């Protein structure tokens, strides 16, 4: 099943639950030097924050990388089908793609205490 089919094949009850969620996402499309489309997605509340990874070491959730358009979670599907590489950060972004079957649970790591995924589709 290709990505587009996975996104369309979600059961109606799941789709309804996902649409009801209030989480919004920042999305930005990048193009790599090798021609792949990279989609950067983070939860609305993370943009501009610093995540403590370990004592004395933080990572910035930068507007330059993630701060494109602010969208509702169910609008993410139309961006995902354009991407070859996904960079997802946050509970809303990661859980949505795991629930949709686009991202396997085993691909999820934590940056500090925030779920993160980088995956090639």
Write up what this structure looks like:
This protein has 121 residues and is an alpha+beta fold. The chain has one domain: 2-Layer Sandwich (uncharacterized conserved protein from methanopyrus kandleri fold like). It is 28% helix and 36% strand. It contains 5 helices and 8 strands. The chain has helices at 3-8, 12-20, 63-66, 76-80, 91-100; strands spanning 24-31, 37-43, 50-54, 57-60, 69-72, 85-89, 109-111, 114-120. The strands form 2 sheets. Strands 5-1-2-6-8-7 form a 6-stranded mixed beta sheet. The chain has a two-stranded antiparallel sheet with strand order 3-4. Strand 3 (50-54) and strand 4 (57-60) form a beta hairpin. The longest helix has 10 residues, at 91-100. The two termini are 12 Å apart.
Poorly predicted ranges = 10-21
User: What portion of residues is helical?
Assistant: 25-40%
- Return the CATH topology: uncharacterized conserved protein from methanopyrus kandleri fold like
Cα radius of gyration in angstroms: 14 Å
Strand content: 35-45%
Class from secondary-structure proportions: alpha+beta
SS element count, helices? 5
Shape label: globular
CATH level-two architecture: 2-Layer Sandwich
- Main pleated-sheet profile: 6 strands, mixed
Number of strands: 8
Topology as a string of helices (H) and strands (E): HHEEEEHEHEHEE
